[in-house]
Design a protein that fits this description.
The chain is of the alpha/beta class. It has two domains: about 160 residues, 3-Layer(aba) Sandwich (Rossmann fold), CATH 3.40.50; about 70 residues, DNA polymerase, domain 1 (Orthogonal Bundle). The protein is built from eight helices and six strands, in the order βαααααβαβαβαββ. It has a six-stranded parallel β-sheet with strand order 3-2-1-4-5-6, with helices on both faces. Helix 1 packs across helix 4 and helix 2 crosses helix 3. The chain is elongated and about 60 Å long.
Length: about 240
């Protein structure tokens, strides 16, 4: 067992999207809001535009979904893109946590652990997600990396370091739980944190090099309740 694992764990830090809830809930809600807006301002039925957005997302991934969809329908205007982004970002989301999450957070709080949340993305959007999920009361520190600039998103060191500083714990006294192997774990590991990957969301089938992979993989967040017995956890990679 690695020496760092001998330290007493005092804090558990979580990612938000696809770690505590399925992010496609927010995406689909935003698409519905955008589709209603298009329907009100054109002769395109909202269901038609909504289905088109899903198809574009599936084929091209994120980044230019609205651009591509509007061009397919001959409706593209640069100023319209800005308006659709605004509609998407400001819609009121209706979100549900993964079924086990609330119980896990409650148990961890009862066990005396400090809890932190680190999330990337538009601050207004991320705040609305947290409000919709009604989870802010669980966390001793919530870190919005975009408050320091988009260049400070994970895997930048700053959000991890700021969160640990606010919680007053050392990296080797903490666990980081996320889902995205492209950015969630590499920096946390460099700092000396133990890392756990929840195999859910859009990256659940993604396999990546050991440098970027978490120390441990779990299928369900409830397994994290065994984290003080990390040597007994299955699917150890590092």
């Amino acid at each position: 067992m690695e020496k760092a694992r001998l330290f007493k764990i005092k804090a558990i830090l979580f990612d938000l999207d696809d770690t505590l809830y399925e992010e496609m809930q927010f995406v689909e809600g935003g698409f519905r809001a955008v589709s209603s807006f298009i329907s009100e301002n054109s002769n395109i039925h909202r269901d038609v535009f909504y289905q088109l957005l899903l198809e574009v997302l599936e084929e091209h991934g994120r980044g230019h979904t609205f651009d591509i969809a509007l061009k397919k329908l001959g409706l593209y205007k640069e100023e319209l893109i800005s308006r659709l982004i605004e509609v998407y970002c400001t819609h009121k989301p209706n979100l549900l946590l993964y079924p086990e999450v609330k119980l896990v957070l409650l148990r961890l709080k009862e066990m005396g652990y400090q809890l932190g949340l680190i999330t990337d993305g538009n601050v207004q959007v991320q705040r609305s997600k947290i409000q919709a999920l009604d989870i802010d009361g669980f966390f001793d520190c919530i870190m919005f990396s975009d408050e320091y600039g988009v260049e400070r998103r994970k895997p930048d060191f700053l959000p991890y370091e700021k969160t640990l500083e606010k919680l007053r714990v050392n990296p080797n006294e903490s666990v980081y739980v996320g889902d995205n192997p492209h950015k969630d774990f590499i920096t946390a590991k460099k700092l000396g944190m133990c890392t756990v990957r929840v195999m859910k969301g859009q990256y659940k089938q993604t396999h990546i090099t050991e440098e970027y992979e978490a120390n441990y993989q779990i299928q369900n967040l409830e397994e994290i309740l065994n984290f003080t017995f990390i040597p007994k956890m299955q699917k150890k990679f590092v």
